[in-house]
Amino acid sequence: QGFIIRTSLAEYRAANVLLAIGRRGTPRKLDVTGEDLPKVVYRLIDPEQYRGQRVLVVGGGDSALEAAASVAEAGGHVTLSYRGDAFTRAKPRNRERIAGQLQLLLQSKVERIEQERVLLRSQDGHLILPNDAVIVSAGGILPSEFLRRVGIHVETKYGTA
Q: Which helix (H) or strand (E) segment is 71 a member of?
């Protein structure tokens, strides 16, 4: 059986096809006011650029913990906001890396981003934090609808730490 793959240049036959589409192209958004400000990014490129800045990192997976730790180690003042009550998906070494390095706000959610501050809601009420930059590491959105339309069944599997 197999597959026939047609492109604008040629036609290929294959027994298997691997779609390496990744998720970084479509980051998951917070859908809050102010998210369109230039200070909001969805991927950490250079931790050094945040030296001396007040940075909010949003997320609870490995990429969020790695970004938070890297910025803190580079001299940024980091607050890590995560809606969950524990970092159950993150690798133990990443959980250890953030210990004592930053302000941690579990069970919190960003409500609004402003030029010089962010507003969050937590189990303790509303918080207003002075802020220079926001790094959203909340994962990506798989193009599931597109894949279904072209006849591809997606089965999600999670690796182990």
A: helix 62-73
Of 90, 44, 47, nearest in space to 72 by CA: 47
Give dist(CA 50, CA 46) in Å, integer: 8
Report the alpha-carbon distance of residue 80 to residue 67 in Å, rounded: 10
Contacts of 149 (CB under 8 A, 6+ apart): none
pLDDT greater than 70 at residue 157 = no
Contact 102, 78 (CB under 8 A): yes
Q: What is the pTM of this model?
A: 0.80
Tell me which residue of 66, 40, 43, 65 sits closest to 55, measured CA to CA. 40
Closest alpha carbon to 60 in 137, 140, 113, 156: 137
Residue listed under structure tokens 């809606």: 83
